[in-house]
Prior knowledge:
It contains six helices and 14 strands. The radius of gyration is 18 Å and the shape is globular. Helix 1 packs parallel to helix 6 (235-245). The chain is α+β, with helices and mostly antiparallel strands. The strands form three sheets. Strands 8, 9, 10, 11, 12, 13 and 14 form a seven-stranded antiparallel β-sheet that branches. Strands 1-2-3-7-6 form a five-stranded antiparallel β-sheet, with helices on one face. A two-stranded antiparallel ribbon has the order 4-5. The relative contact order is 0.17. 26% of the residues lie in helices and 31% in strands. It has two domains: 11-93 and 234-245, Phosphorylase Kinase, domain 1 (2-Layer Sandwich), CATH 3.30.200.20; 96-216, ATP-grasp fold, B domain (D-amino Acid Aminotransferase, Chain A, domain 1, 2-Layer Sandwich).
Amino acid sequence: xxxxxxxxxxxxxxxxxxxxxxxxxxxxxxxxxxxxxxxxxxxxxxxxxxxxxxxxxxxxxxxxxxxxxxxxxxxxxxxxxxxxxxxxxxxxxxxxxxxxxxxxxxxxxxxxxxxxxxxxxxxxxxxxxxxxxxxxxxxxxxxxxxxxxxxxxxxxxxxxxxxxxxxxxxxxxxxxxxxxxxxxxxxxxxxxxxxxxxxxxxxxxxxxxxxxxxxxxxxxxxxxxxxxxxxxxxxxxxxxxxxxxxxxxxxxxxxxxxxxxxxxx
Length: 265
């Protein structure tokens, strides 16, 4: 199957598979593929807070593409195939495991509040937490006992997810540290990728400033979605800063709020 031949169907003619808070999934050009479209919507507190920030989807698409490509390069299995244009990427179709996996390196957000730890405190070691993906229930935290009892994942899949989470965390910590950013925590999702009769667990969804807490090492300035959650302003500027530090955007480039543009690669 040649994933590299340029083939593009206008959005209006594509079959929509799923729409989330920040992304839309469309039927892909080949069997077993989907097109992931990044929207400009910013949401927080389970979508109780909602705004459209023009250009956010473009930045998240570029940053997520870069991080997933680097993970693919070091042998971490992901759903990512390639970026199609400013807002879209081609991905493998996976069966999403209904868990958000949070990896925490520094106390922040709900962990700091829940355990009364001062935000910014370095944790004794990286902590992995599981949350049940359910909007109606506001994504409650769950234990491995819940996950296996309700059949959301098998014990073997939990082991695979944790091993992936540790590898991704180690890689991202080093990558961001190299550009002066502390990876405080991040959330990732995993999916079951079926290849004939074989199934393996892969990293899915996105990895971007929407799903990571990123702090400048010197100033502790927040370069992530907390700028929106906490009404700090400057979200687009912060995401642009991350993209520029990673070398994805040149210093004088500005994120465009335009629609899909086919990139011939």
